[in-house]
User: Fold this.
Amino acid sequence: MSEVLNVEEIFNQNVFTVGLMKERLPRKVFAEVKRVMEHGGELSLEAADVVAKAMKDWAVERGATHYTHWFQPLTGITAEKHDAFVTLPDEDGKMLMEFSGKELIKGEPDASSFPSGGLRATFEARGYTAWDCTSPAFLKEDATGVVLCIPTAFCSYTGEALDKKTPLLRSMEAVSEQAIRIVRLFGNTTSTKVTASVGPEQEYFLVDREKYLQRKDLIYTGRTLFGAPAPKGQEMEDHYFGAIRERIGSFMKDLNIELWKLGIAAKTQHNEVAPAQHELAPIFDSANVAVDHNQLVMEVMKKVATRHGLQCLLNEKPFAGVNGSGKHNNWSLTTDDGINLMDPGDTPNENIQFLLVLACVLKAVDTHADLLRQSASDVGNDHRLGANEAPPAIISVFLGDQLQDVVSQLISTGAAETCVEGGVLETGVSTLPDLVKDATDRNRTSPFAFTGNKFEFRMVGSGDSLASPNTTLNAIVAEAFCEAADELEAAEDFDLACHDLIKRYLTEHQRIIFNGDGYSEEWVAKAERRGLPNIKSMVEAVETLTTDKAIDLFGKFHIFTEKELYSRAEVLYETYSKSINIEALTMIDMAAKSIIPAVSDYTGVLADTVNSVAAAGVEPVSQKEMLIEANDLLTESVKALKKLEEVQAVGIAMSEGKEQAFYYKDVVMPAMAALRAPIDKLEMIVDKEMWPMPSYGDLMFEV
Ligand code: ADP
Ligand code: MG
Assistant:
């Protein structure tokens, strides 16, 4: 019998929860913290001192020696700088561990080396971290010891956001304020706040760490830059939901325990479509907490994998030819008294508030499809979106039969009298129950699908932060709500005005609805006729951030200033160029130092064989053919390597910015592909014993 795991006891073990605060703080201080958590504002320094002490005492009891302001700079990952609780010893040499309110609420890391897109010159590098009390403090526990982590926002001396959390928090406030206006229109006087909730489904690959360490491409870039396909891919569909092998299962078990300790409600785990690919989904939480948690999920996955002799790959496209990894971002809006604005109820045709919300979401997604696309772009995701893989790069919304029917009725007649019902699914087996069918079916090819009581934005990359997509979603929906509320609040006859507005929004934005196959060629052509943007790459998406439309949107709701938008665009261009440059250098390194020498050795062996067979008086026909083929591919590889070296040298010498990023996309990337092609062919003919790295088969099937 295995040891009984007490999940209830483990859960939140490493979190300074609201419950702990209630228990450990004087009632007045707790009330103050609660108020700030729920309605914003500032904590008094006296209260902060009390909270800091309680937090430190708890952390020290649990073995903590250090604390850190944990933040999310524009690198897309999290940053931390540890400070011990130690203070100056007194004259007797005695030292007391301390942590003040000031240290809790504000930090000043010397953060000059984080990307800021020109917002900060290095000589005025001041950056501040500020406590975000809406995301609980937690303990990180590993070989480093125990560290108290305080989630913080990161801003410049002049108040510009330098991180991913600040705009997200701003967008959550914006959408809450505008959504409240909407529910008030329907006579709701009790809700005071609307929270954006997010439940991300995280996909990842696991490979053997020993093998991973033999692949420079995986080490430096997180994806394979060379690799011939294995004899088997995902065509048998035998991995998806397959029985979980014990080695992987034992990783998943430890991962769950670590996540539960951190208060992350890890819920679903399964094998995904590609060999060696898996998924984990926690239960949804407020967007801010969900984004923080997702960063932790990615970090803990990597850590636990290493302990199991595995390597977790979070790159969006670790292997060519099989599915890449994404992160489905399930999103909804719920009032503080529990009303989910995305819940249509049993008869959506009669639920006018829902129909208004739906019309606003459709308008928002149609108006700002370009921004949503941008929010889900990153370097690795370019290999998924639009590259014959889920989902396409064109944004469209899937509604399902029931809602589609309601929307069609509203558009054509202005009223929806009827509603398609789910009905009963007959199993046809007397011992099995008949099942009540959902009225909404599923469509896996849609990038933005309505799934019952939430929208599922499926474009986001597996390795990316969830902050940008959710900031964008909240912002665009806040704008649509605001415009609808402006109109409806001023209307004389609300019912009539609301009815007209819903019909108008649905009619004007119906082009964004698509219920068919999002992977098909026909859809690409159709979408073009509808005038929907098809932005094919990350660098082409950057400009959407600085259009007048985007500047107005983000400015109006105080989410990004124009300056912040330009700085983010700058960071994206730089990130792209730097990433592709690393990939190019890695390919050069691998080709020049290991692959080409190995192929050269192999041709030597073949040449010896040709000679000795001929000397034995037999014509070495096949050996000669093999030698010629290998030699030709070697020549092609050497030529392509030279070309890549040349273009990389030009790229790195350019000044940073848009032009450089496009150069990397349009010139360096094709040169990389030209080097990969002959080398992948060579991998298929060179003696396996002589090939200098594990193959796709070794990596994906021998875990
Ligand atoms: P799927 O069937 O799409 O694979 P999963 O159960 O794997 O679904 O994941 C669905 C995710 O959506 C979970 O994280 C779940 O908690 C989340 N979710 C469920 N309801 C909501 C909601 N109202 N708002 C946001 N996320 C939600
Ligand atoms: Mg899903």
Summary: Residues 197-199, 201, 268, 281-284, 330-332, 340, 453-454 surround adenosine-5'-diphosphate (ligand 1) (CB under 6 Å).
